[in-house]
Prior knowledge:
The chain is an alpha+beta fold. The protein folds into three domains: 102 residues, Acyl-CoA dehydrogenase/oxidase, N-terminal domain (Butyryl-Coa Dehydrogenase, subunit A, domain 1, Orthogonal Bundle), CATH 1.10.540.10; 94 residues, Butyryl-CoA Dehydrogenase, subunit A, domain 2, CATH 2.40.110.10; 154 residues, Butyryl-CoA Dehydrogenase, subunit A, domain 3. The chain contains twelve helices and eight strands. Strand 4 and strand 5 form a beta hairpin. The chain is globular, with a radius of gyration of 21 Å. The model has no long low-confidence stretch (mean pLDDT 94).
Amino acid sequence: MTLINSSATDLLSRVTHALPTIESHAVWSDENRRLHEDTLAVLADSGALRMRIPTRYGGIEADFRTASDVVGEIAGADGAAGWNTAVWSMCSWLAGLFPDTVQDEVFADGDVRVCGVLSPTAMAHPDGGDLVLDGRWAFVSGALHSQWQVAIAMAPTPDGSSMWPVMAMVPMSDLQIVDDWYSAGLRGTGSVSTVASAVRVPMTRVVPMPLVLSEQYATELNTASALWRVPMIATGCGSFAGVAVGVARAAMAGFHERLGDRKITYTEYESQREAPVTHLRVAEAAYLIDESVFHAHRLASMLDRKGVAGEFWDVRDRVAARAALGRVFRLAQQAVDTLAAGSGGTSLYSSVAIQRIRRDVQALNLHALMHADTNAELYGRVLLGLEPNSAYL
């Protein structure tokens, strides 16, 4: 059983029409360390940026399977565009946890872009009716093109006895952007750092992270939606899985496009297509991509089913979502590496997509939430009856 929304039924079709524009600017975005304005425009026109905005604001509330496939299609055209679409979707979902009056402000523009990271790398203290933020956040994908940031900081608990992480909704105009995104992969995401210097945030725009992680949300209206009946981390897993699938599929498509009758230099093979090593390489990559798709779709189906039914999420369910995400990303990287190793010396040129895809998928697999080893260890612990060693469930 999946969540059906009439606005979502033709979303994939609209996104498909945007792909040529996105792909045509992928090299520019990579070289300029931000998404091209035309890419942003077609993403907005397609509806891809409204997948996690409540329908009462003109959003789509697409089911997880549709959203994963949409992100995958975009990532196939440009991994950075796919990643940022996933980030903006996830952060729009986070904005939907705040009080409904705050959402009225954030979603006043139906195509609003909200960025954020999950690390509480700033400090905050209450002052009257405000929370005052000071600190810095790194890897803020899409910050250059966003209007709001979900900023997480450590703040005193209400009784002042200890500290806990809180989420604050902050206008980008209140933050300083540090252009430090000089990276090996995902260059087009513009994942710069942002800085808060005594930024005042009304307490109405602040929610405690421990409550969010236990599904105690400040919104009232979104509780009726299946999308907001899924835990935060599981939602993140479902939001990002499509990125890995998309870049892996793009690697396979690019390999076929360049194959032609290209020879294998310093051998007697006049056509790489005829070499057994190529057959084995393509078959292995196809297996890996199919397996990554399987895990991505299995994850999306679980999220849709449990969200629609309002089912309880136990610890194993939550850990299984992270495990599936890590597996998707590892399989995708293995597929890309397999194809890249057979792409020849000319694939080093920046005009050949496989070198960018390989850098992007390596960067994806370094992300803490997607890291395959971390997630596999967490999964194994729980399967053996041990307590999870992470609060991010």
